[in-house]
Amino acid sequence: MSASSPLLAELIDALRCLPGVGGKSAQRMAIQLLERDRGGGRRLASALEQAMERIGNCSRCRNFSEDEVCAVCANATRDPHILCVVESPSDLAAIEQATGYRGQYFVLLGRLSPLDGTGPEELGLHALAARLEEGEISEMIIATNPTVEGEATAHYLGRLASAAGIRATRLAHGVPLGGELEYVDRSTLAHAFGGRQAVE
Amino acid sequence: MSASSPLLAELIDALRCLPGVGGKSAQRMAIQLLERDRGGGRRLASALEQAMERIGNCSRCRNFSEDEVCAVCANATRDPHILCVVESPSDLAAIEQATGYRGQYFVLLGRLSPLDGTGPEELGLHALAARLEEGEISEMIIATNPTVEGEATAHYLGRLASAAGIRATRLAHGVPLGGELEYVDRSTLAHAFGGRQAVE
Ligand SMILES: [Zn+2]
Ligand SMILES: [Zn+2]
């Protein structure tokens, strides 16, 4: 059928740039839009074009933003004394959605990875250090991922905070809620065991 | 994070018009395009816009086509004597991909459904009857879906063919290949049992 319409074949192929979308689902998506929701398809085309062209990074926190300063940074009701440092906008989104955090963020857009050429400069750590020197922040929450590179990045961030005389904290590691011990990986379990806490 | 960028929030929302895409995957798709594949995102925007605006239906078979007559109908190497009637472009695609069929198609873009106001007119059955009258077609393969409405449509199509003196055939029903009998639904199994064939 794609053979009957080059434009349809092109649409099916272009849909495959979406994560998790293979040939079968791309075909289903394209046909469903054409058959039942051309308005939705047009709106998606326009939203994609606008987003790809106009979304850059906030000059203060490096999160996605089409404005010079993003809405989170510009929000006067958020606590200016706590700064949460994350690797990516997705991590920021996860924290916003799962927690009641009302402080500020700084997005590294990566993690220290000397082999890939990602050093402090690429992660905006000079800007972060300058921000810590401003004196308004009293706690820096380090929320990098629990991977080797994330841990190395966390270590570096900890030194930055300590140089600025700021308290640094990390997300707690441990057994995930609802997880069964026998299915928790060994290092998480060892960590949770070593960090056991007194029952009140 | 979507709170930090209205354009991103709009993109996440617009992505949900795609079948099978909920809020979580829409967010993942939007962020991945922004972080890693803006070229792919722009190409998708343009493919969507072109497809939604320019793809109509072939005047001969009603399949999707941006041209007056689609590439399948215009393909002189396909057998003009066999016509396969399907409900939707997706069914046509499934047959093209699964079988070696090299005849022509007619796409109903629906099925008879008096309650929804879908009658012979909406399914283009006058055009189909006219085509059968042209005298070139010797076999009409009825490939509507094995649903109540599909069966009613098949019945109607069979009468059209018979009025034009054309042999009508239907796809064989039976136990799916690789299926286990105990998991096959009862009516399929009953049908397969009743239609049992001699072993050669
Ligand atoms: Zn910001
Ligand atoms: Zn055609």
TrEMBL record, chains A, B:
Coiled coil: none annotated. It comes from Oleiagrimonas soli. Keywords: DNA damage, DNA recombination, DNA repair, Metal-binding, Zinc, Zinc-finger. Belongs to the RecR family. HAMAP family: RecR. Residues 81-176 form the Toprim domain. A zinc finger (C4-type) spans 58-73. The keyword Heme does not apply. This is Recombination protein RecR. Pfam families: RecR_C (PF21175), RecR_HhH (PF21176), RecR_ZnF (PF02132), Toprim_4 (PF13662). GO terms for molecular function: DNA binding; zinc ion binding. The keyword Metal-binding applies. GO terms for biological process: DNA recombination; DNA repair. May play a role in DNA repair. It seems to be involved in an RecBC-independent recombinational process of DNA repair. It may act with RecF and RecO. The gene is recR. InterPro entries: DNA_Rcmb_RecR, Rcmb_RecR, Rcmb_RecR_Znf, TOPRIM_dom, TOPRIM_RecR. CDD domains: TOPRIM_recR.
